[in-house]
Amino acid sequence: MKEFALVILAGGLSTRMKKPVADESDIDRELVEQSRDRPKGMLGVGPGGRPFLDYLLYNARNGGIRDIVIVTGGDDRVFRDCFGRHDRNNAYHGLRVSYVMQRVPEGYAKPRGTADALQQALESRPEWKGRSFLVCNSDNLYSSRAFAELLRAPDTCAMIGYGINSLGFPMERILKFGIVRVSEQGYLEEIIEKPDEETLSRAQDRREKVLVSMNIWKLHRDMVLPYLESCPVHPHRQEKELPAAISSMLRDHPRAVKVIPFHERVPDLTNPADIERVRLFLSREYSEGLWQVT
Prior knowledge:
By secondary structure, the protein is of the alpha/beta class. The chain has eleven helices and ten strands.
């Protein structure tokens, strides 16, 4: 199996996590406070306050990843205090952890989204020219098997498409993700961001493979970088979004991205109400702890 780097997008402002919920009585007060000023991936939702991102790194390593690049926002001290203080190649339980701080361009009050974050990461790694890499969010806990399947995929670009019934999310939450349309040959045809119920219902009525994108990809640096650079800024969110860049890439390369169907739960830290569900999942599924073998 070839060695691929994993880029973890962790520089967003987590605005939804900062919104109040109707009832915070069942949520640990310390975690509620953490959610006000920490990146979502660094919330201490694991036993003993272990950060959520640590579980993602653990699964990535067990799936075959060794090289990690974390794209951070304006203050990366919380990451460096946990995973190593050097800019590059911090040794962490068999991983090499590096950081790229996402710059906020002049005239903007916040980072410009996931496409911009990935562009900055790739521009900092010219040595990746001619290579594929993996990229994912910092607030979703993808399994070791998902990482391993992407590493094994023979295609230079691929993605995991999750069956909507396996994720364990209510339909109103599914509608906030992107659903993917897949060709008969198994290639990504379209990403439908935040579909309405009618669009989803029509796809189900046609017995299409209705899969959800949770933003975990295998991409080729040389192929995707021009589309990250030219990605338009969303008129409302003022962000350059990775699905939009990939949609542009598909128009020029319609058989570029292989879709790997998956059917499993992906714990997700989007809102404060997710905190307790994620805590219970981690305490149950990782009861023996992490990093027993380094």
